[in-house]
Specification:
120 residues, 14% helix, globular, kinase activity, PTS glucitol/sorbitol transporter subunit IIA
């Protein structure tokens, strides 16, 4: 297993945790526009060194999830903007082009300093 993306959450927008109620986690790199920061888990942007695809693993803190679907522009958005929308629903077809679906429960207790990784 090789880490293809790794970053650390540095800030959590006021409304970011609300998306978790809808089984979503939305990320954006530091320096995001102010109107977006409010809804995102902000992180210090890492470098994507591999391909996001079903079968990749997503790790958040000590939790591990299987990636089940990847939207057409999710990889590009992550690479260029540090932006990704994760859906914790295990769907096998991406609902939207920028969405990555994973199998497993919605994470709890996410705090600044939490590490986010994709492992292939």
């Amino acid at each position: 297993m090789t880490v293809i993306y790794q970053t650390t959450i540095t800030h959590i927008g006021q409304c970011a945790a609300d998306a978790l109620n809808d089984r979503m986690l939305i990320t954006f790199r530091e320096g995001a526009p102010a109107d977006i920061v409010e809804f995102c888990f902000i992180h210090c942007h890492g470098e994507l060194t591999g391909t996001l695809r079903p079968g990749t693993h997503f790790e958040l803190g000590d939790r591990c999830y299987d990636v089940t679907a990847v939207g057409d522009v999710a990889e590009q958005n992550l690479r260029e903007l540090g932006h990704i929308t994760l859906r914790f629903d295990g769907q096998h077809e991406a609902e939207y082009p920028g969405t990555v679906h994973v199998a497993g429960p919605v994470p709890e207790g996410i705090a600044p300093g939490c590490m986010l990784k994709f492992v292939a």
